[in-house]
Amino acid sequence: MKTTLLALLLAGLAWSQPAAAQRGARCVPYAAVYPWVYVAGRHQPCADTVDRPFVPSRWGAFFGLAVLASPRTGFGGAEVAGSYRVAPRLQASLAGTVALPTRIGSSLGVADVGKPMLGLYSLTGRAHAFLLDNARFRAGLLGGLGAGVATLADRSQQVAERGQQGCGCEPATHAKTVATSVGLVGLAGAAATYKLRPDLWLTAHAYYQQWAGATRFGRQADLSPWVLSVGLTMPDAWRAGR
Predict the structure, then answer these.
(1) Do the Cβ atoms of 242 and 57 come closer than 8 Å?
(2) Domain residue spans in the chain?
(3) Is the dihedral of CA 84, 86, 92, 94 positive or negative?
(4) Exposure b/e, 175-191, CB count within 10 A at least 16 = b
(5) Could you tell me if 67 and 99 are in contact, meaning their C-beta atoms sit under 8 angstroms apart?
(6) Per residue in 100-138, pLDDT tens?
(7) Residue 31 contacts by C-beta under 8 Å, 6 or more apart in sequence?
(8) Nearest to 131 by CA among 193, 63, 57, 200
(9) Beta strands of 16-136 (E only): which ranges?
(10) Vertex 146, ends 142 and 152: CA angle to 5°?
(11) What CA–CA distance (Å, rounded) separates 142 from 98?
């Protein structure tokens, strides 16, 4: 009885393979039809498997780590950007940069600050003009305008994290922000890309970001850093008619 059932099962599987091929709806694994061939190591991949190549659009994205240098200190941070290719040699993007609050040696004119820390943040609209864009490299000029935020905190004044007051435990704390400046920023510099593979590029941005307008502490130069960011780009490509 068991031998009869096994023979019927194998016959049914053998019949289903050509039927499925005629319909073209699915691909039955070769091992399901001829299991002894699979075990012997002579199986082949399904003929209906198709590798779809990566096709970039005009949209792109960037994420990278950044180092910033101002007259007061050096910062570590990050930079993210979303972009759109508006012409064969022109890209527009919206980018955000964060310089983590870092200890500085001056209170920048603010009284009663024992251990000052400076943080810089910006959100800018940018234009990137390509001077070179081939199969392996991309390079061009970068310019932009946007808003900047600078914070001055004091590590000698610690405040409890929100929601932890009165919890009966040792609360987590952070340095108290004693002053905040908001103003316009402009930037100019360059960018370069090495195209590692069709769906993964390595990009570097280098530019100077100038603070414009009044500040609540320090000078404009104190809030105007040089920026170098290096990270990965989601590729974009110009396509006429799209």
Answers:
(1) yes
(2) 58-102+113-156+177-237
(3) negative
(4) beebbebebebbbebeb
(5) no
(6) 999 998 889 888 888 999 999 999 999 999 999 999 999
(7) 37, 38, 43
(8) 193
(9) 59-69, 74-87, 90-103, 116-133
(10) 115
(11) 18
What is the C-alpha separation between 130 and 203, in angstroms, rounded?
13
Torsion angle in degrees (nearest 10) through CA of 31, 36, 40, 46: -20
Domain covering 58-102+113-156+177-237 assigned CATH 1.20.58.100 in the classification: no
The two most distant CA atoms of the chain are separated, in Å, by: 96
pLDDT tops 50 at residue 37:
no
Higher pLDDT, 28 or 166: 166
Question: What percentage of the chain has pLDDT greater than the value 90?
Answer: 56
Residues 6+ apart with CB under 8 A from 19: none
| Residue 174: its H or E element | strand 173-197
In the prediction, which pLDDT does 170 show? 73
Q: How far apart are CA 215 and CA 237, in angstroms?
A: 40
Q: Are 204 and 139 in contact (CB under 8 A)?
A: no
- In sequence order, the β-bridge partners of residue 64 are 79, 231
